[in-house]
Amino acid sequence: MVKLRLIGIMTGNSMDAIDLVLTEFENDKMRDVCSLSVPYSVTQKRQIDDLRHWVSAQKISQQQLVKERRFIQTHWDYVAGVADAVNTMCAKFGLDKRKIDAIGFHGKTLDHYPPSMAKLHGGKPFTTQMGSAQLLANLTGIPVVNDFRSALIINGFEGAPLAGPHNAHIAATEGDGCYFNAGNTGNLAWIKNGAVQISYDVGPFNEYIDQYILQIKGEAMDTDGTYGKKGKLLPELLQKMFDLCREYYELLPPKSGDPSYYHTPELLECIEKDYAKEKFNDVVHTLEYFSAYIAICGLAQTPEHIELTPRFVLFGGGWRNPVVLKSFKDLLTKDAVVLPEHEAQFSALRQRFNKKPEIKYSSLGSYMEARLMADLARSFLLQKTWDLPELKGRELVLGQARFPFAGAVDDFLSAAALGW
Length: 420
Known about the structure:
420 residues; 6-stranded mixed beta sheet
């Protein structure tokens, strides 16, 4: 029996907080020991957001990026903040770092251009995450495993989402069904008999809501749907939002998403131009409805050969928003506002279920993305292939490891960053 204690860290694109969880693994059984969330300040969020938008717009190579002053400072602040969160959690819960096998660390995605997008627009796929594992290991005194996406991109795969196999591990106790994560980007995995049938991203989930709230209110999110609950749906804005990224939404899976091709600045500019400030609550409500709407669009793309188990297991902060959750239930189970072009598609989706779907929030939902990183680190330490459907028959182990003060701090970016 192999027993491992691993810290998982996620600092996702939503950037609401640095999420950490210490999970104890005994073979495929897992138990969360403790967890911590350290909120980003608005200043930190804007600093990283500005870098992300600049990198995406400039399409700057890794060789150039690591020389840029704005990158060097932002990268240092980011990794130092993550290390401080780890050290805080260890002190708060009295954790002996010598008994922690490793940290699983995703890093911060600055840009992502998978094969699905390269086929549409040309060029070479890449994935750019910042976050030095060596620096984090030095600052915490714990080995770090990171860069889980690069091996996938280099071998011709999408590189995201990574959650499917972890969802399958959770399904051992929570059962088969559709495991749906609501982060900055939404992603789903259909699990049957404890195995991943298919997993893919569906598009922006918290991205539009969080960016609009930050711009107008200077707040990280619409906490508990405070603003959205006061508004009503603007059908014409719903149509504009779908048309803005129609090419992505209609792209068939497998596919992965990234804020770099959600056209958020263009959407915010459109809203500022077309909607008066007294429409603020209505705009928020529509953005939240759109998150649910895109989730249904993604579900409707599930290949016909996959049997749709009428059971949904939800993860991620986006589902904590009551407007989003109610909109999802309404769109899935009864009549709701649907764009004319999707009426037949949504109706066909509902008919694929043999009974009314059951929808529940996972008992392991709050720290799923952080625990996923711990699970990925476990697979690396055991030199096991991550059980994505596309890797069947392929011996491809994801990640790379760094140890405290055992090498130079030269791993600022993922191996498959632009220019690899």
